[in-house]
Specification:
Distance between the termini: 60 Å
Mean pLDDT: 82
Number of helices: 2
Number of strands: 0
Strand content: under 5%
Order of helices and strands: HH
Largest sheet: none
Helix content: over 70%
Radius of gyration: 38 Å
Length: 153
């Protein structure tokens, strides 16, 4: 009987030790989970700040794109004006032979202007294309960030 009591007491002590160990491990696990949750929340806040910056960048890129479009339209109008100027200079050359040297110089200038306008127009089109690609990239980043935020939540 005494042996049974001693065994029971020993088993009870072992069980109490096991319970305390489980309680300690549970507390440690709970703290680790809380730390992980806090870290995830901090990362989500960082992601939100990055998203806000990307939205601002997208708006800036959109402004650049709109500016490039305006430049492209202005370049087209300048091209039409240059063509009209060339036609006018040809009429003046036909009407007044004594001014032909001046008209030829104007024609050369017109051609240079048209070349420059063509280069400006090409540059504006390339800038416009680059801005469109950047806007598309930002939109994809924004969507990815939104998805990451949803998954974090």
């Amino acid at each position: 009987m005494r042996t049974l009591a001693e065994t029971s007491a020993r088993n009870a002590a072992d069980i109490a030790t096991q319970i305390e160990s489980i309680r300690n491990k549970s507390t440690t696990l709970s703290e680790t989970v809380n730390e992980s949750a806090n870290t995830a929340l901090e990362e989500a806040e960082k992601g939100k700040a990055i998203t806000e910056e990307l939205v601002k960048m997208k708006a800036d890129m959109q402004s650049l794109y709109e500016g490039a479009s305006v430049l492209g339209k202005a370049a087209s109008e300048m091209n039409v004006a240059a063509i009209d100027a060339q036609k006018g200079s040809e009429s003046i050359a036909a009407a007044a032979e004594e001014l032909s040297a001046s008209v030829e110089e104007i024609n050369r200038s017109s051609t240079e202007i048209m070349t420059a306008i063509g280069q400006i127009s090409l540059g504006a089109e390339q800038a416009s294309s680059a801005v469109e690609q950047a806007v598309a990239g930002i939109t994809q980043i924004e969507q990815g960030t939104s998805l990451a935020q949803e998954r974090a939540n």
